[in-house]
Structure formats: structure tokens, C-alpha cells
Specification:
alpha/beta; Rossmann fold; eight-stranded mixed sheet
């Protein structure tokens, strides 16, 4: 089976053109690692467009090839990624894969899938652009307004959508031709972290934005007695935004709170090793990777009962959920985890075991193969 796998090389997004190593989002990277564990079952051709030529390996694994079409600046957002779509189409015509699988609609991948030759096409939705545009009240012709409409077109043009949670599936039920619920894979290295879950740090990993609710989280910490309050560490980008500036003002006034900024995957593993609890008070989330990574590492998790999170956490068994709209609910979840460390440790241990069964790259890759086979069988029948 030969697959064209459309995803974003983050070197392009970060203008890191001198880096010789392709760098993908955590979920697509983990899935590719899973495919590499199945060399006798699948041949994968990763396609990632770039504005400038970069040094890149021909292969990422024994059965995973890497291709990087160079697309002039005009072929990107200003033309709704049409240049990326044309370049990807030409390359797919040369490769002749059995199936095309696009990862996400945030940038060019969805458009490239739509413009590809007549082959079976799958789309994975990671972040809901329509929902984010709604939260941000995006104005016509703004970036999120554009990608919201491109997402809707891509969903309709795909032969099926891989929904990483039932939340995604429900939102697309009347729009997609067919859907499958399959969570993201977790980088296998996180299973080796073996965190103790006994640190005095509560970690929140998310971009500083209104729907991630760091301000409300800080207010919940304000309500915890001084002798019980742990250290709160906020990891994520966005300090230069209006919301981020307000978060930083609150951080500055609280000696128990800090914002070290964003970290890479190794940095996140280091923080997880010394973390007693991961907390995520979002009002919009589909399949937050940090929840899966914390579960794999053995860190207790408390998160919002919204979006796709209930698909990832079984309340009271593998983690704890709360109402993110209620600061009191956030506070109560924190206090319970602080005051009952034995229960938290038991949940973390159970979560790690279930994460191995559900989210390991080889497991998720094998499930993708089954979906691919279904789509191909249908197209040939």
C-alpha cells in the first residue's frame, strides 16, 4: 500500500530554513513513527511544501520517503494556498500513490488534498477552524475566516474524515461522507519518561489565549490557601498578544506563578518529570496532545469536560474533569488532587497503562491501515 501523506514541515512555518531535519507537528510525527514500525505493510511518501529550498533527507525511515516542493510566496495564503495545491498535484501524479491522506486544515494540506488527482482522499481534522473562527469572531477575509471556509470545502471533498474524537465526528456528521474515530498517536518516548507525579509543580501547557483560560486558572490558584498552594508553571507562546500581556501582568504579581515560555519536546519531558499535576482549563479543545503525553508519562491530569477531552479521560479512573467556566470547579479539582495524592497516583498509573493500549504509535498506525484498506476496497468496488 502506497500513501501520499500531506503535512506541514514546521521549518517552513518557523522560517527555520537552515535546519537539515524535517520537523512536524507532534501528532503527525508520532503517526509517521508508527508507520515506520510497519515496514512490510505500508510505503509512505510525506509531502510538505516550502517557500525556500532546504536540505532534507530522502527518507525518514526504511519505508517513509520525504518530498518538499518549493512554492513561491504568491502560492501561499494570498492565493488560498493554490500554489501549494498545484505543486503537490504534480508530485502526486509522479508518485502514483493508492491513497492521499491530508493532516489538518490549518494551512495548505487541505487545499492540496482537494487539488490532488482523482484518488481516494482522507482528511484528519486536528483543530476545528470553524470553531476557532467563531470564538475569535473572525472578520470576513481574515486568516481564520479563510481557513474556516477552506476547511468546509476540504471536508466535503474528502472521501472520509479521520475524527480524532467523537466531538469532531459529531461536528462533521452531516458534512463528511464518512467518518472514523481514531485518536492521535503519542510520541513513544513519552512512555519512557516515568514521572513520579510527586512534584510540587502544577503544569499548564497551552498557548496564551482566551479559550485556554490561563487567567481563570490563576484566579483559581488565588483561592487556594497559602499553605496548600503549589507552584503554577505556564508553558506556551502568546505573551505578546493582548490576552498574553494580561496573563504576564498577573504572573508578575504572584511569586508562586511563572511563565518560562514555550519549550520543545525534550523540554516538555523534563517538566513532566518534576510535575505533580497537569491541568488544562480550556473551553475549546479537540484532542490536546499534552493530555496524552502526560498520561503516557504517568503524570496525573485534570482537564475541562469539553470538546474531545472526555474521549481521552475517564473521570475518576484515568483523570479528573471539571467545568472550565467555573473558577470554583477548577479550584476544587486542584484541591482534590493536592489533598489526595494516593488517588492521583492510582489514576496516573491507570492512565499510563491505558495510554499504551490506546495511543501508542504502532497501535494508531495499524488502525490507520485498516481505515485505508476500507477506503480502497470501497473505491475499487
Amino acid at each position: 500500500m502506497k500513501i501520499a501523506f500531506l503535512t506541514t514541515d514546521n521549518r517552513e512555518q518557523l522560517a527555520d530554513y537552515e535546519n537539515p531535519t524535517p520537523h512536524f507537528g507532534t501528532a503527525p510525527a508520532a503517526l509517521l513513527d508508527g508507520f515506520a514500525m510497519l515496514p512490510d505493510k505500508i510505503e509512505v511518501h510525506v509531502i510538505s511544501c516550502t517557500r525556500r529550498p532546504m536540505t532534507s533527507p530522502e527518507k525518514l525511515a526504511e519505508n517513509v520517503w520525504f518530498h518538499q516542493p518549493v512554492v513561491p510566496h504568491l502560492g501561499w495564503g494570498r492565493t488560498a494556498f493554490a500554489g501549494c495545491g498545484l505543486a503537490t498535484r504534480r508530485l502526486i501524479q509522479q508518485l502514483k500513490p493508492d491513497l492521499i491522506h491530508a493532516q489538518g486544515t490549518e494551512r495548505d494540506c487541505g487545499v492540496s488534498m482537494m487539488m490532488a488527482p482523482r484518488l481516494p482522499k482522507l482528511l484528519t481534522i486536528h483543530g476545528h477552524m470553524a470553531r476557532i473562527a467563531e470564538i475569535l469572531q473572525s472578520k470576513p477575509l481574515s486568516y481564520y475566516w479563510l481557513v474556516k471556509h477552506l476547511e468546509a470545502l476540504a471536508v466535503r471533498r474528502a472521501d472520509g474524515v479521520v475524527a480524532i474524537t467523537r466531538y469532531t465526528q459529531e461536528r462533521l456528521r452531516d458534512k463528511a461522507r464518512q467518518t472514523w474515530v481514531l485518536p492521535n498517536a503519542v510520541d513513544a518516548a513519552f512512555f519512557d519518561v516515568n514521572a513520579t507525579g510527586k512534584g510540587d509543580v502544577v503544569l499548564c501547557v497551552a498557548s496564551l489565549s482566551p479559550w485556554k483560560r490561563q487567567i481563570e486558572l490563576i484566579r483559581a490558584f488565588d483561592m487556594i490557601p497559602d499553605d496548600k498552594r503549589p507552584r503554577l508553571v505556564l508553558l506556551g507562546v502568546g505573551a505578546e498578544s493582548g490576552y498574553g500581556e494580561e496573563v504576564m501582568r498577573l504572573v508578575k504579581d504572584r511569586p508562586w506563578c511563572e511563565h518560562p515560555g514555550a519549550v520543545d519536546r525534550e523540554g516538555l519531558k523534563s517538566w513532566l518529570r518534576k510535575t505533580g499535576l497537569l491541568i488544562l482549563p480550556s473551553t475549546e479543545d479537540n484532542c490536546p496532545m499534552v493530555v496524552l503525553e502526560a498520561m503516557a508519562a504517568g503524570v496525573p491530569v485534570a482537564a475541562s469536560q469539553i470538546g474531545g477531552i472526555p474521549d481521552l479521560i475517564e473521570h475518576g479512573v484515568t483523570g479528573q474533569m471539571f467545568d472550565p467556566q467555573s473558577i470554583e470547579s477548577i479550584r476544587d479539582a486542584l484541591l482534590r488532587r493536592i489533598e489526595d495524592s494516593a488517588e492521583a497516583a492510582t489514576m496516573a498509573e491507570t492512565a499510563k497503562r491505558k495510554a499504551m493500549e490506546r495511543f501508542h504509535p504502532k497501535v494508531i498506525a495499524a488502525e490507520h491501515l485498516r481505515i485505508y484498506q476500507q477506503v480502497l476496497a470501497k473505491s475499487q468496488g
